Amino acid sequence: MEKEHQKMVFIMNALNDGWSVKKNQDKYIFTKKHENKVEIFQEDYLATFIVNHMCLQK
């Protein structure tokens, strides 16, 4: 149950930060418009994204 709770917190925080979340089979896809441009993020962005959205107090 703890894993599901963490997943819900993570997704809710991403939604509150303006991200759209879709589920495709067993994968979640996070998208966010960036001035209608396609952007490629550096590898360290994923780690930052995860850290920023894992906290319950966001």
Give a quick precis of the structure.
The protein has helices at residues 2-16, 43-54, and strands at residues 20-24, 27-31. The chain is built from 2 helices and 2 strands, in the order H-E-E-H.
Strand content: 15-25%
Shape type: globular
| Number of helical elements | 2
Helix-strand string: HEEH
Q: What topology, given as strand order, has the largest sheet?
A: 1-2
Gyration radius, to the nearest Å?
A: 12 Å
| Quantity of strands, as a count | 2
- Integer count of domains: 1
| Secondary structure: helix percent | 40-55%
Structural class of the secondary structure composition? alpha+beta
How is the main sheet built? Answer: 2 strands, antiparallel
Spans of at least 5 consecutive residues with low confidence: none
Distance between the termini: 21 Å
Q: How confident is the prediction overall: mean pLDDT?
A: 83
What does this structure look like?
The protein is α+β, with helices and mostly antiparallel strands and 58 residues long. It has helices at 2-16, 43-54; strands at 20-24, 27-31. The chain is globular. The model has no long low-confidence stretch (mean pLDDT 83).
List keywords for this structure.
58 residues, two-stranded antiparallel sheet, single chain, alpha+beta, 2 strands
Helices, strands, pairings?
Blueprint: H1 2-16, E1 20-24, E2 27-31, H2 43-54
Antiparallel strand pairs: 1-2
